[in-house]
């Protein structure tokens, strides 16, 4: 299994994905096809944290007047399943590994994984 979960309107996702050969990868645009409970469970197995998958930049946080500091793991899980913008992206998921988000370390790890300089 090789999947990339991304948002088509996200320039950062497109920029990161363009750096790699994604032939053989299933590309999932999360607005059109939201993540499933099973996929979230698979991501959780690799991160051991729903919070690690949660985007603190989601516009929904302000709209829903959420206090992120008071959220627990079950809250992060429910929010991730409720609205696509809560997923930190892009997410590259394989049978053995997961790469979440667009921070510099994650992108460097992805480059190493793909063998790109």
Automatic annotation (TrEMBL):
Pfam families under this entry?
Answer: ArsC
Q: Which SUPFAM superfamilies match?
A: Thioredoxin-like
PANTHER family found in the cross-reference section: ARSENATE REDUCTASE, PROTEIN YFFB
Q: Which family does it belong to?
A: Belongs to the ArsC family.
What protein name applies here? Arsenate reductase
